[in-house]
Amino acid sequence: MQSKLEQLKTEALLAVKAIKDKIGLEELEIKLLGRKGGELTNLLKGLKDLSGEARKQTGQLANEVKKEIEEALAAKKHELSAKEMGGLLEKESIDITQPSLPIKARGHFHPNTLIQNDLEDFFSSMGFMVLDGPELESDYYNFTAVNIPATHPARDSHDTFYIKGHPDWVMRTHTSSVQVRAMQKYGAPLRMISSGKCFRNEATDVRHEHTFYQLEGVVVGKDVNFAHMKGVLEAVCQHVFGPETKMRLRPKFYPFVEPGVNGEVTCFLCQGKGCKLCKQTGWLEVFGAGMVHPNVLKEGGIDPKVNQGFAFGFGLTRLAMLKYGIEDIRLLESGNMKFLEQF
Ligand code: FA5
Question: Whole-model pTM?
Answer without folding.
Answer: 0.72
